[in-house]
Design goal:
Structural class: mainly alpha
Distance between the termini: 31 Å
Strand content: under 5%
Number of strands: 0
Shape: flat
Radius of gyration: 21 Å
Number of helices: 9
Largest sheet: none
Oligomer: single chain
Amino acid sequence: MDWNSTQNFTINIVFIILLITTILYWASFAFKDIKLLKSISKTGVITANLLLFFTLGSRWITAGYFPLSNLYESLLFLAWTLLTLQLFAEYKTNSSLIGAIVNPIVLFLNGFSSLVLPPEMQKAAPLVPALQSNWLMMHVSMMMLSYGTLIIGSLLAILFLILGRNEEIPNFQQVSFESNTSKKFQLETAEPTNESGLNENRLKLLNNIDNWSYRTIGLGFPFLTIGIISGAVWANEAWGSYWSWDPKETWALITWLTFAVYLHARITKNWQGKKAAILASSGFLIIWICYLGVNFLGTGLHSYGFLS
């Protein structure tokens, strides 16, 4: 069996599924009465997730190493991570809102990996000596997990700013809601309104988005910390130095500092709402600069970090 052809075919199928599910997610908000759209979307995401898992698993078996040795494999792993987190978030929130904003990102990652990267970069190749280490799985998997969770947290912050634009939003700690609805996203916009003029259900939605953004970023930050530390240990083992100010290392540090400031402001300064969302949403751009942007800006020590 030609595994390369099989894996490429599977990725193409995933792209088609993600394109359809993205359209269905958006359509489910335009046609809220058609419940079938949400069911089909969720089924499609589960199918795409399983196909990506199959692709990564088969690549691991055939190549003999954990599939995170180049940019193509890391893109697939990040796409799988985002879909897994999306399914978990949809289960916990009972809302397709997460899928509507995350699915397009996964579609972009899948399209970029299969349509933009040259075929030579998509093929599995023997590991270079620097990558023949047990730290490969630890470091890169932690970084991809952190990217996935932080991307979702930042996307929720951006969504908060979009939905709450031109609105005076009160401090959420001064707003109380009924316990039976506080943990779910409420998408209705029925009356009554509160003293600030915001619809109460709309304020519940903004409150939940703000909380989920904080929780998601709080989950991703330890992954990022572990990823950076393990990368430093691996760098010392491979290159004889814990830190070399490589572009990847520098931007990973900038990413860490950005979200560290966000969490510090939330915990010690009690920042909520728009101020916190602006800080968190800036992390969305910084993550992409760290992960993909520096790939096009120069050269560095990371073997798969730059495109020629």
